[in-house]
Amino acid sequence: MTALNEHSTTDRVGPVTDDEIFAAHEGGKLGIGVTRPLADPRALAIAYTPGVAKVSRAIAADAALADRYTWASRLVAVVSDGTAVLGLGDIGAAASLPVMEGKAALFKTFGGLDSIPLVLDTTDVDEIVETLVRLRPSFGAVNLEDVSAPRCFELEARLIEALDCPVMHDDQHGTAIVLLAALRGANKVLAKDIADQRVVIAGAGAAGVACAKILLAAGVGDVTLLDSRGIIHPGRDHLNPVKAELAEVTNTAGLRGGPAEALRGADVFVGLSAGTVPEELVASMADGSIVFALSNPDPEIHPDVAARHAAIVATGRSDFPNQINNVLAFPGVFRGALDAGARRITERMKLAAADAIVAVAEDDLGPDKIVPSALDPRVAPEVAAAVARVATEDGVA
């Protein structure tokens, strides 16, 4: 019975053993619940044959009735090809299924939404799009999960165009929404304005790209984006189309070089690269700086070390203050989109979600609480209401 590394557990729950983990996953984490008890012959005749034939005929005559008489309009398909799972990388469809089951459990627990994991044994974008188009009558929204970059950008864009329902890649936009909420919360605590800040994002994968885009949409002063080759800027070698596009709208300071040049005088650091950041680089940031070391389970810099120089520190872990956790966003975003009958999730809906998250913590904000707890039951309903309202305003409902 081997205990996990102590840094992977929390003080609140104590050490978690391998035996405990495997026992909790045995047989999977999901099951199908029946909403109408089948306790007698009459109930059976209504739920199945012959009664169900009347409902099927009605839907055949008017396809819109499926929203009322099936679960499809409230069902989220959690879709992955297993190519970028957690910090494990490309582990394949079968190995990704426990993660997708867990995501479905979070949808139910926090958003009250049913969802079904679909892991696809292909990495071909055409095949994935075709598969989901053919399955469209079975679900009401698509949560893409753990698809590697840069394919994830093309896949999401094509599915948004091909499907008449909400589609969101949570690794991109869930992360971005919660990051923006955290930055807004931190700025409220420090009485700072996002328009005056330069944000350094280390990592130009799915999450890094989405975070850069949402921060720009929110009015941040400047974003310096780093990949493994250094600062992204126009004309630099080895830029894919996504990075080349961002090079035109980021780094208005015209910086060149690597992390040292990027972090010198920066107001905010966002780590999304699984790399490490030396203490002296954090020390070189502006006074009252903000550090979001989000790589999991090992942050780019230990929070205690970062706190020697930064005014506010956040991580992706639950055993330090200020956990940046996607569960604050995606259940409410999808719930709001489905409540509104939205055909897609707009940028303004994502911004509204971020504002709703920080609003929940408004009365309790402090250096060690810039976002609500991931377990706060108020979050998903508030996010859902804000998202649904903006969906109507944006004309996608």
Structure write-up:
Helix content is 42%, strand content 11%. The chain is α/β, with parallel strands linked by helices and 397 residues long. The protein has four domains: 1-30, no CATH class; 32-70, no CATH class; 71-165, Malic enzyme, N-terminal domain (Rossmann fold, 3-Layer(aba) Sandwich); 171-397, Rossmann fold, CATH 3.40.50. The strands form two sheets. Strands 7-6-5-8-9-10 form a six-stranded mixed β-sheet. A four-stranded parallel β-sheet has the order 2-1-3-4, sandwiched between helices. Strand 3 (141-144), helix 7 and strand 4 (167-169) form a beta-alpha-beta unit. The longest helix has 21 residues, at 170-190. The protein is globular. It starts with 17 loop residues before the first helix and ends with a helix.
Would you kindly provide a brief summary of this structure?
The chain has 397 residues and is an alpha/beta fold. It has helices spanning 18-25, 41-47, 51-61, 66-69, 93-111, 125-135, 151-162, 170-190, 206-218, 241-247, 259-263, 279-283, 303-306, 330-339, 347-360, 379-393; strands at residues 75-80, 114-119, 141-144, 167-169, 198-202, 222-227, 230-231, 268-271, 290-293, 312-315. Helix 8 (170-190) crosses helix 15 (347-360), helix 14 (330-339) packs across helix 16 and helix 15 (347-360) runs antiparallel to helix 16.
Please bin the fraction of helical residues.
Answer: 40-55%
Distance between the amino and carboxyl termini = 52 Å
CATH class group of the largest domain: Alpha Beta
- The number of distinct structural domains comes to 4
H/I helix tally: 16
How many beta-strand elements?
Answer: 10
Rg over CA atoms, rounded to whole Å, is 22 Å
| Average pLDDT score | 93
The global form is: globular
